[in-house]
Amino acid sequence: MDSSPIDLRLLNDYQRNFPLTARPFAAIADELGTSEAEVIERFAALRAEGKLARIGPVIRPHAVGASTLAAMAVPPDEVEAIATLIAARAEVNHCYEREHPVNLWFVVTAADETAVNAVLTAIELHTGRKVIDLPLLAAYHIDLGFPL
Amino acid sequence: MNAIGPSPPIDDIDRRIIIATQAGLPLCERPYAALAEAVGLPATLVMQRLQRMLEARVIRRIGAVPNHYRLGYTANGMSVWDVDDDAITELGPAVGALDFVSHCYRRPRQLPLWPYNLFAMVHGRSRCEVTEKVAVIAAILGSQCRRHEVLYSTRILKKTGLRLTE
Fold first, then answer.
1. Best to test chain B binding among A43, A141, A144 (most B CBs inside 10 Å)
2. For a disulfide at B96, which of A103, A113, A121, A140, Cβ 3.0-4.6 Å?
């Protein structure tokens, strides 16, 4: 990536073990040999540039509430309308269009399984199209971040 | 690897803390104190709860969540595999252990619409790079995999942290 060395370290080295201390940015500054103000300023700049989505806890799937991956095969001329309808729902936190006959992919998260199923049913009713429900059966990856 | 079993117990205070963090910690000198104020709890309690949830694996990690796409990883390939059911519990973890796989899950087939039961997300700077990485997965799965495809994303329509409605 074409960012400064400190930006790369902030994004790469702190994907986990972000300090759980009163002044975490000061702790990072000590490790990197810079100032707390500089660390906060760089993180804010990375967020403004869109390179940093957020800093915070990443929750294990199903640790809180229930969720599923859902998919739909939507004709090209209906993609825009159906995608807009899906993305507008608060229970949908990811929605991607992918190159495949099954072209709309989204994650539904709600308080429990019944609530998740109700969202899928509502989307089927509103669109008149089948929703493929692909709930997680096992996770084979401990998410420790992604080497940049 | 973690099988998806019953969730570790969390209470309403934990839920409030998690929900408040999903938009991101505030970028200020004392972010946990600011978070605590937003949820109306003492800062020491919020930090204790976060530590406890880390230890209980409710929280996988606390850290920076990069936007891969904006960092040049513009090829996002969801590789999907039709793996023999008897072999998947052994092969799934081997695929999940690859450092370029950011998510790896077993999901049910939904025949006839969807024949694949293993999902591995692969990011790359180009489709060529993703293709090379997918070949590594194919070599691991070998003859236990009947077929596979790679679904590239063409548009991110929405991507936010976890949201819960009460």
1. A141
2. A140
- A66-134 is classed in which CATH architecture? 2-Layer Sandwich (3.30)
Task: Return the SS3 of A114.
Answer: helix
Residues of A in contact with B108 (CB under 8 A): 134-135, 137
Q: What is the CATH number of domain B74-152?
A: 3.30.70.920
**Using CA atoms, how far apart are residues B19 and B10, in angstroms rounded to an integer?**
13
Within 8 A of A56 by CB-CB distance, chain B residues are 21-25, 62, 65, 161
- What ipTM, to 2 d.p.? 0.82
Q: Where in chain B is the domain with CATH 3.30.70.920?
A: 74-152
Are A55 and B18 inside 8 Å of each other by CB? no
Domain locations in chain A as residue ranges: 5-48, 66-134
By three-state DSSP, how is residue B37 classified? helix
> CA-CA-CA-CA torsion for B155, B157, B163, B165, nearest 10 degrees?
-150
Nearest CA in chain B to A45: B27
Band of residue B1 on the pLDDT scale cut at 50, 70, 90: very low
Which pLDDT tens digit goes with each residue over B127-146?
Answer: 999 999 999 999 999 999 99
The contacts of residue B63 (CB under 8 Å, 6+ apart) are: A14, A15, A16, A17, A18, A55, A58, A145
pLDDT, tens digit, 9 for 90 and up, residues A61-89: 777 788 999 999 999 999 999 999 999 99
Reading the block at residue B101, the tokens are 């796989």
Q: A73 — alpha (psi -120 to 50), left (phi > 0) or beta? A: beta
